[in-house]
TrEMBL record:
Domain of life: Eukaryota
GO cellular component: membrane
Gene3D superfamilies: Ribonuclease Inhibitor
Parts of the chain that traverse the membrane: 12-38
Protein name: Leucine-rich repeat-containing N-terminal plant-type domain-containing protein
Cited SUPFAM superfamilies: L domain-like
Keyword Membrane carried by entry: yes
InterPro entries given in the database record: DNA_repair-toleration, Leu-rich_rpt, LRR_dom_sf
Main location class: membrane
Organism placement in taxonomy: Eukaryota, Viridiplantae, Streptophyta, Embryophyta, Tracheophyta
UniProtKB keywords: Leucine-rich repeat, Membrane, Repeat, Signal, Transmembrane, Transmembrane helix
Annotated localization: Membrane
Record has Repeat as a keyword: yes
Amino acid sequence: MAPAASTVSRLVVIIILINVGAISDTTIFAIASAAGLLSSPKLLEREALLATGWWVNNWATGNYTSYHCKWTGVSCNSAGSVIGVSLLWYENDNITGELGRFKFSCFPNLKSFKIHSNYLLSGSIPSEIAAVSMLQTLELPSSSLTGIIPLEMGRLRNLVHLDLSDNYLSGYIPPTLGRLSKLEILNLSSNDLY
């Protein structure tokens, strides 16, 4: 079978599985990536944004359904790679479910990630967040995050601002945060940390 025909065959199988509801968005994303259907880093970022379910309507995407750099709360560099996600309390009505739906490893150039005052955002902080080595700002205040602060956050060597206040985080403050030599602002208040 020719390479183009093989790709089309894999795409047809994925579409059939989607239509019968046999696979989740995350599985679709993983299969499409493995099949080489998401070859462009920019396309990979776009698909990762869509997989969160947070950019699903015209309010969030506007008339730019295929160009994620124009979506509400998304900023990109001149090459079209995502460098910021900023959804403040009045912009985040679509953000429900777990924080782990955002695949941090798909965003190598991400410098800022801010979701404020969203009590519908739940789950734990994924250890995968350490894959975003360029991250300078992480703000997730006033949400419903639970669990521990992952030790892996100590690998975010460029982090300057960390705000995880007013959540339901528990356990100890990881000593690995002491490795964050560039950290200037740290707010962990209103959690159950020791």
